Amino acid sequence: MTAELKELISHILWEAKSVEEASFSLRDGSTVDVRWEEDSHADVTITQGFEIHS
Rg of the Cα trace of the chain? Predict the structure, then answer.
């Protein structure tokens, strides 16, 4: 699922063409950071979130 998510995010931002960097959070607490490289490829990093229950 992670590879599919990266591909989807990359495609959406490529179509927008005005986004150079983006960062957002998912409902599960994960964060997604996207940065465009000079060769027009997106570097997408997904950091898995976690919940602490007490």
Answer: 13
At 1-54, the pLDDT tens digits run 577 777 777 777 776 666 678 888 888 888 888 887 777 777 778 788 765 554
> 27's torsion region: left (phi>0), alpha (psi -120 to 50) or beta?
alpha
Contact 13, 34 (CB under 8 A): yes
3-state SS assignment for residue 19 = coil
pLDDT, tens digit (0-9, with 9 covering 90-100), for 6-15 = 777 777 777 6
**Where are the domains positioned within the chain?**
2-47
pTM as predicted: 0.54
